[in-house]
What we know:
six-stranded antiparallel β-barrel, elongated, 23 strands, nine-stranded mixed β-sheet, alpha+beta
Amino acid sequence: MKMHRLVAAAVPVALFSLLLAGCKAGEVSSEAKPTVVSVRVAEVSGGVEEGVPLRFSGIVQAAQRATLTFQVSGTLRERSVELGERVNAGDVLARVYNPALEPATDSARARLQELVTQYEQAAREWERSSRLHERGVVSEQALEQLAARRDSLKASVATAEASLAEAMQLLDESTLKAPFAGRIEALLVEKDEFVAAGQPVMRLSSPSGREVEVRVPAYLLDHVSLGQTLPVWAVHDRNLPAVTGSVVEIAQGSAIRGELHPVLVSLPEASLEPGQPVEIGITPTSVPAMTVPLLAVLRDPEGTSVFRVRDDRADRVPVQVQRIVGEQVAVRSEALTPGDQVVYAGMTRLADGDTVEIRR
C-alpha cells in the first residue's frame, strides 16, 4: 500500500515539473530577439557615368610648317642659313646650280626677240600690200598669204613668250626662299651635294601656333567634334597638369579595315614646345548612370547585386554593372534610386531580409 501511494504522489509532481518547464521555454522563445547584423553603408550617387579617357600618343608640332625643296635638280652651291636660325618671309635660304638653266633662258629670250622682229616685219609688209591692193597692184591671194604669215608669226611670238617665262621660272626655282617667317628646324642636304628635283632640303616651322595629330579608330570619330576641348598630357612629366586642346580637323571614316584616322588638335600659345611627346584623352560620350562603391557589389551564379538598407532592413537588389570608375562602379537598376543606402562592409554575415545596425 505504501508503494502505491508513493507512485501516485510522484506522477502529479512529474507532470507539474514538465508543465513548468514548458511554460518557461515558451516565455524564453517569445522574448528572444532577432539577430541584428552590424554593417556600414554608403549612398548611391546619381548623375553621369564618368568614362575613363582613352589616351592616344602624338608629337607636338608647329601649326605652320613646311619641308622646302627645289623644283630643279643641281648642285647645292650656296646655303645662307644655319640650324635653328630665324628667318623672315622672302629671305634667300639656298641656291642650286644647274648648268642648263641660264643658257636655256638666254636661248628663249633670243628666240623671242627673233620672232618679234619677224612679226613686226610681216605686219609692215601686210600694211604696204593692203594699200597696193586698194590700187589693184597686189592680188587678193597675195594679200591673204601675207596676212596668214603675219598671224602665224604672232602665234609664234606668244609661244616664245611662254617658253621664256618657263625658262625664267625654272631659273628662279634654283633659288630657295622662305615662304613665311620661322625657324630652321632641320638641314637635310649639305653644301656641294647633288639635289634632285623635289628632294627635301630643309624644314621650316613658324614659332606661332602648336598642334598635335593623333590617329584613332573609326568608332571614336563619332565621339569628337570640331571645337571640342580635349585634355593633353606631357609624357616627360606626368605630374604637370593637363593642357586643354581644341579639335580643329577630323578625318573622314573609310572602309579600310583596321585603319586609324587622324584627328588634329590645336594647343594654346606657349604651352608645349615642338617635338614633345604628349598623350591626348578622348572619352566616349557619357550616359546617365548611378554609382556605388566597388565593395558593395556582390557576384553569384544568378548575377550581380547589392544590399539596399531601408528601415533597418537589408534587401538584396539585382544590378547591372556598366563600368568600373576608380573605387566606384557605374550600375543600372530599376529598384535603386540616387540617395539609397547600400551595404559595403559587413556583408559576410548578411542575408536577404536581415535586420541591420548601421555603424558610423
